[in-house]
Specification:
Blueprint (H helix, E strand, L loop, with lengths): L1 E4 L20 E6 L8 E5 L7 E3 L20 E3 L1 E4 L8 E2 L1 H4 L7 E5 L17 E2 L1 H9 L4 E4 L23 H8 L3 E4 L13 E6 L7 E10 L4
Parallel strand pairs: 6-8, 7-9, 8-10, 10-11
Antiparallel strand pairs: 1-13, 2-3, 4-11, 4-13, 5-12, 12-13
Helix pairs in contact: 2-3
């Protein structure tokens, strides 16, 4: 079986989105083999740290938490779309998607992982237009992954307290409002060659949570 890990390693002081509603990652050793006879650690991190899954509750009042996302959405055949031709602030349009076969599970590969661990990662990344989001919804997509921090335009100043709520993360709201699973910060998509891939993406089963760090992998073939 061929397997590619698409999740970034969780580590202390890792890159997170700079906003007061995201917590820094800390990892503290608690037990030591030479003292307590075993190793244990305390891990403190936000629900949207690193490679992670957004549940509808992230933006939709009364939306499903991560533990209620049907597992059948998270495993199965996946279509990977190469969008590396889009540069800074490039936009995925409805017209672009009309030339692509839309399947239940899709990954958009922008090549943005090359900016991981740099300030550029969180600025000017390619994004998805509301029209393209509507097109995906109408074609019954259930899962969308991407190697960027968000499907929304990074130039929207979501830290502005005066921002009209309707202008805050509109693509997130469209997709999550239709119970489409979102996974952001995918890693290592440059290692993916060819087609015939399957996806497995499982979050922590955190009661009532709006999202979770997630281990994502692609696989094809079978055990020998």
């Amino acid at each position: 079986m061929e397997i590619i890990d698409l999740a970034y390693e969780i580590e202390e002081k890792m890159s997170i989105f700079d906003a007061p509603w995201h917590a820094p990652v800390t990892i503290t050793q608690m037990g030591r083999i030479d003292c307590e006879g075993r190793e244990t650690r305390r891990v403190c991190l936000g629900t949207h740290a690193g490679t992670h899954m957004d549940a509808p509750l992230h933006f939709i009042p009364g939306g499903d938490p991560v533990g209620r996302i049907p597992l059948e959405k998270l495993i199965g055949p996946v279509t990977i779309v190469d969008l590396t031709h889009l540069g800074k602030n490039g936009v995925v349009t409805r017209e672009m998607l009309a030339d692509i076969t839309v399947t239940e599970r899709m990954i958009f590969y922008f090549g943005w992982g090359r900016h991981w661990k740099t300030p550029q990662f969180f600025h000017d990344y390619p994004w998805i237009s509301p029209g393209a989001a509507d097109y995906l919804i109408s074609n019954k997509i259930v899962f969308l992954g991407m190697d960027t921090p968000s499907p929304d335009d990074s130039r929207i100043n979501i830290r502005d307290p005066g921002l009209d709520r309707a202008c805050d993360s509109p693509v997130h709201k469209l997709l999550l409002g239709n119970r489409i699973v979102l996974v952001e910060y995918l890693a290592h998509l440059d290692r993916v060659k060819g087609s015939g891939w399957n996806l497995a993406a499982f979050p922590l089963n955190i009661r009532g949570a709006d999202g979770s760090p997630v281990r994502v992998c692609l696989f094809r073939g079978g055990p020998r």
